[in-house]
Here is the input.
Amino acid sequence: MREPSVRRYSGRSVEEWKAARRERLLAAALELFGTEGYPATSVERLCSKAKVSTRHFYHEFQNKEAVLLAVHAQVIELTVRTTGDALRRTADKPVRERIVAAVDGYLRTIMTDLRRARISFVEVVGTSPAVEEQRIAFRELLIASVKDLGDTAVARGEIKRKDFRFLGLAFFGAVNTVVYDWMLTDPRPPEQKVQKALRELAVQLMTS
Here is the structure.
């Protein structure tokens, strides 16, 4: 039995056109939410930036909040993947080396693109119950990584048992405050200096 043919427009299928349209909207959201802010960005502004009609916007997203959730999810995916890769690469290394690798991976993801930092630390905070739920879920993923790292180090006899959830909350709270302050400082200090200080804080919290 022959497979039904797929209609193509300018060499693309309908699904490919839809995927490209969605990616343009997400790229526009990263740029506008990450520079001008979520409240200041209208659906019409997003559509204009992405070169997408408002009719097609509502084919892809229910509302502006749904776009924020989607672009924040992209940041979460990248951050979790980068941090997880760092922990896997250093699975057999001493705990200090693992902490440094994980913190470096996390901070590079956030700090190399100020738009991602602003969305993660400013625009999603308290925006709506749905966005807050996603933000807290992301934090819990990071806390789980801290607990796993700590439990592994305890089992190896490298460090003593601690309340790793509390330490994770303290560290990521510090990251939020420090990176937010760094973003607003003019002139902005070198990011390497901030990353070094946060690496040292993470090592001290986990191993002292």
Remarks:
- The mean pLDDT is 92.
- DSSP finds nine helices and two strands in the chain.
- The longest helix spans residues 129-155.
